[in-house]
Design a protein that fits this description.
The protein is of the alpha+beta class and 190 residues long. A hairpin with a 2-residue loop joins strand 6 and strand 7. Strands 2-4-5-7-6 form a five-stranded mixed sheet. It has a three-stranded antiparallel sheet with strand order 1-3-8. The longest helix has 30 residues. The protein contains four helices and eight strands. Helix 1 crosses helix 4, helix 2 crosses helix 3 and helix 3 runs antiparallel to helix 4.
Length: 190
């Protein structure tokens, strides 16, 4: 049992390092417009559900609750977008809630329609949340201790939103953190 626990820790840390390297590489490609967008029609309702299922299947611990909120009127909405990048943005927002709430929290992934904009939203509440700060500045490499710059995942979410002609907003109120990806009306079909 002790060796299994150690192996699990090593696996989690290895995956964290792999994800960080992938995020840094994708950030660079998006900065220099080297990442081609593979736009196709997709249903964001299915994308939200798939991202939530992937988080659960990745071993989400019991101290985290996860809720998916897709209103009936959003079921038939389609977007012209890069499914892989939007899913990556949602996963980064959900993982941000887990990472910054080691004692657990409630995470809600929501699809909403707002003023003819498609809104992909992730709320995390119940723990300390992310630090009280505006959206992060672009990372400038690794920190002095060799760790990842804080906010790298959120910067990537912002870049993905911009690459789709949208924007990324952060709203934080104490222990409640909300990340919102707003996509332009011209890309939505109802």
């Amino acid at each position: 049992p002790a060796r299994r626990e150690q192996a699990a820790i090593i696996r989690r840390q290895s995956q964290t390092i792999r994800d960080l390297v992938n995020d840094l590489n994708l950030t660079m490609r998006l900065d220099y417009e080297m990442q081609p967008l593979r736009r196709a029609r997709l249903r964001p309702a299915a994308l939200v559900r798939q991202a939530a299922a992937d988080l659960i299947n990745g071993g989400l611990e019991d101290r985290y609750s996860l809720e998916v909120d897709v209103p009936p009127e959003a079921e038939e909405v389609t977007l012209l977008a890069d499914e892989g990048l939007l899913k990556r943005a949602l996963m980064n927002l959900m993982n941000n809630g887990v990472r910054h709430n080691p004692d657990g929290c409630a995470i809600t992934v929501r699809l909403a329609l707002q003023r003819a904009e498609g809104v992909l939203e992730v709320d995390s509440a119940g723990g300390p949340g992310a630090p009280d700060a505006p959206p992060p500045a672009p990372p400038s490499g690794l920190n002095e201790d060799g760790s990842a710059p804080h906010g790298t995942g959120l910067k990537l979410v912002e870049q993905i939103a911009r690459a789709h002609g949208g924007r990324f907003e952060i709203v934080q109120n104490g222990a409640h953190f909300r990340g919102r990806i707003l996509l332009p009306a011209g890309q939505a079909q109802i």
